[in-house]
Amino acid sequence: MTLFKKPSISVTDQISLLQNRGLNIQQPKRAEKYLEVVSFFRLSAYMRPFQKSERQQETEHLFKDGVEFKQIVDLYAFDRELRLLIMDAVERVEVAIRATLNNVMGIKYQTEAECSGSHWYLNENLFKRTYQHKRLLKEVEDKQAKEFNDLQRDIKKIERSSTSAEIKQQRIERRVRESYPRFYHRTYETPRLMPG
């Protein structure tokens, strides 16, 4: 491995460097604004498909003829949009699987015990021995505690405000209902963790 020795340079110098490497930049000021918020290094991965292969280059990182800065920005934007679409789809699948699992397990293990119904996941015996059940419970507990701490902070801010007691109470209730972990922790004592 080699030591990274590239010096930091201003955004204006980054534009000059790209132009010296053969990149066409029609609107340098606009490109500067883009580099200010995205960064040269983040964008550099999207430059590679537009650069000459190492065999074709006499110096490093030269661009193929006719390449525009806009093409690199468009590729970056496409990648960002694709990533958002994929994450949205993955989240929908995750939520559907969790809902199905909870709907089936909650009914199947409905008893009078504390670890039943929608709290089925609290029963360690329903998991393989190799499953890290305590870690699952810790993650749920941490999420619930974080949300409740955030709620307590919000309540203190609301109580310090100069609005009427009725408005304060409405705002607190709205904050409580913003997330289920907050609502559950504030409303129920047993079981201590929210349903699955």
From TrEMBL:
Domain of life (superkingdom): Bacteria
Keywords assigned: Coiled coil
InterPro entries: Abi_system_AbiD/AbiF-like (IPR011664)
Coiled-coil parts of chain: 141-168
Pfam families xref list: Abi_2
Name under which the protein is recorded: Abortive infection bacteriophage resistance protein
Source organism of this protein record: Thalassotalea piscium
